[in-house]
Amino acid sequence: MVKFGLKVQLMWEAHSMFSYQSLDLAILKIRFTLKKSLFLLLIVTIVGCKQKEQAPKIDTELNELFGLMQGSFNSEIQAKADSTYYNISLHMYPIWKDKGNYLYVEQALNSMQNRPYRQRIYEVTRASDSTFKSAIYTLPSDSLWIGKWKTPLAFVSIAPTSIKIRKGCEVILKRLGDNHFKGSTGERSCESSLRGASFATSEVEITSEKVLSWDRGFDSIGNHVWGATKGAYIFNKLN
After folding, report:
1. Pairing between β-strand 210-218 and β-strand 224-227 as defined by DSSP bridges
2. 3-state SS track over 41-75
3. How confident is the model at residue 226 (pLDDT cuts 50, 70, 90)?
4. What is the pLDDT of residues 165-184, one digit of tens each?
5. Rounded distance, CA 43 to CA 55, Å?
6. Which of 81, 215, 71, 224 is nearest to 152 (CA)?
7. Where does the UniProt annotation place the signal sequence (predicted)?
8. Confidence class of residue 57 from pLDDT cuts 50, 70 and 90?
9. Which of 9, 23, 67, 181 is most buried as measured by Cβ atoms within 10 A of its Cβ?
10. Cα–Cα–Cα angle for 103, 106, 109, rounded to 5 degrees
């Protein structure tokens, strides 16, 4: 009977030890699972934060300016009121939409739109916290692009690297209020040889209804040699 009791006790102790070991193992597994879950949660949180930080910030003011510049304009109203101004057509339409804020720009006498006197590409970017920049580029083989403001997708055949920047001719603009921007080129930074000029200036004002642009050329001593004398051309938006 004593032997039987001892045997039962030993079996109970063995069973207890096994139970404790199983419990310890289960606890270790739970701890490992929790640590793994917490680690994965931490990784997901870090990645999520980084993605938030890296997500491009939408510049609503830049988008506002870029939108205001788009469309077809002319100076017909001004020309009818003052014969010293011509009726000029101005077309500005976005191109390379996946590459930035680029506009193809074409200007011509309204009666001779098949013979534009100016073809440019503008790149509109933010210059600082309070200013914006419209950089000016010339196109290779201007004649190939006449009227292409009607079909902006035509510009997929060339790349931004194929256009040439006019250094010093960028227009720096400030936002004066809702749908209202104003700016100019540097005083003598934009070189020009047109009609005996040494440099050119451009003063620009943009609203939701019109674009005011006063382009002038000056010789080396500052004499006015081309451009409107009274003030800016007023281009009213047509669409």
Report:
1. antiparallel
2. HHHHHHHHHHHHHHCCCCCHHHHHHHHHHCEEEEC
3. very high
4. 999 999 999 999 999 999 99
5. 18
6. 71
7. none
8. confident
9. 181
10. 155
Of 239, 186, 238, give the one whose Cα is nearest residue 75: 238
At residue 80, what is the residue type? Answer: K
Write out the two tokens for 100.
Answer: 């930035």
pTM for this entry: 0.76
Alpha carbon distances (Å) from 225 to 161, 184, 193, 232: 33, 19, 11, 16
User: pLDDT tens digits for 90-108?
Assistant: 999 999 999 999 999 999 9
Joined tokens for residue 82:
């003052």
Backbone angles phi, psi at 211, to 5 degrees: -125, 125
To which residue do tokens 């701890």 refer? 31
Q: What are phi and psi of 56, to 5 degrees?
A: -60, 135
Q: Are 104 and 90 in contact (CB under 8 A)?
A: no
